[in-house]
Amino acid sequence: MVPMRYFHRRALWPLALTWLIALLATGPAAFAADAAPDLGPTMRFGIVRSNAAGCEPICPEWISAEGSIEAGTPALFKRMLKTLGGRKLPVVVDSPGGNVEAALTLGRLIRKNKLDIAIGKTVFSSCQPDAKGCQDRDARYFGDVIDYGAMCNSACPLMFAGGIRRVAGEWAYLGVHQITTTYIRTKLQYRTTYRIVGGKKKILNTKIVSRKNAGSYKTYEMSKSVEKKLAAYLDQMGIEQSMLETMKGTPASEIHQIALDDMLAMKLVTSTDAVGLLTAASLCEPGRLATNCREVPGNKPDGLMATAARPTPPAIEPEAARRDEDMRFVVVRGTNPLCNPDCPEWISAEGAIAPQTPQKLRQLLATLGKRQLPVVI
Questions:
Q1: CATH of the domain spanning 39-179+222-295
Q2: Model-level pTM greater than 0.70?
Q3: φ and ψ of 82, to 5 deg
Q4: 153 and which of 55, 175, 328, 364 could share a cystine (Cβ 3.0–4.6 Å)?
Q5: Closest-CA residue to 122 (of 147, 85, 97, 153)
Q6: Helix, strand, coil fractions of the chain, as percent rounded to 5
Q7: Boundaries of every domain in the chain
Q8: Could you read off the pLDDT of 41-59 as tens digits, one per residue?
């Protein structure tokens, strides 16, 4: 009975699911088989405290979730949740999409922990989560949130579906499309050790001795098994199946922005409110403290303290302002490439108010006809 070894080859086809965003497609052609979609920085999480004036020592806090969803993102989120000690902070997400399985896991974690979620961008007032030596001892950052320009695309809406309260507002962008499935062929070489017993082979062990990439290809329509899995998930989260139909009806090279009214009909959002519903400083007013309000005596962000320490420059009288600094009005259109052709517009009003300013505004309004645009001053 002599142990013997032999080598054999076998091709396996592991399955990986990835979402692509319309920004990556330069035309109708598909991505190259060996090209990995570049969705930007990986999602990062941070506990953010509102820097709204006058809210201290009791201010709202939230979890900032910004970046692409990768396979390891759920583990990072779990680690973040452990630092909260059971506190339920809303999640403010801004993501182009990413890994489907990871997005489903994130959605389930959010639902399991009974967290609210909103689409929004966190604007940090001092440092950002990826800056070293900037975080305070309580693992918090300071900032504010905006919804204009924020997105939740591709796989992100699956994560978004996990929230208890889900808000997007009119200025955030939520888009879906078909799944792109990447099949990666891997060639494995095994070494098998066996023994001859009674004229028959008895395998003692099998070990992989080499692993080589043997190519890949992509499909741009979800399989029946994936469709069934997503349908079950959306049903579990209380989302209408019309969301899945919208995904299936949108090519992978494009993205379909879901209007706020349609999101409400799909039950993808729970109200037409925006991110401020979960993060506004008014949530922490006496008599109406929200669960994400926290009191930190003597607390103030470093950036604000530094500002307060500087001497205040003397005020400039209105009549002393130079003529080229008088208020001007311009109609501005959003530049986010994902919003075309239906991008938001507003009236920008910048500069000092002078006697002729009302007339300038009247002249601009006359060019708008019956359109009603918001004024950003």
A1: 3.90.226.10
A2: no
A3: -65, -30
A4: 175
A5: 147
A6: 25, 30, 45
A7: 4-20+180-219, 39-179+222-295, 313-376
A8: 899 999 999 999 889 999 9
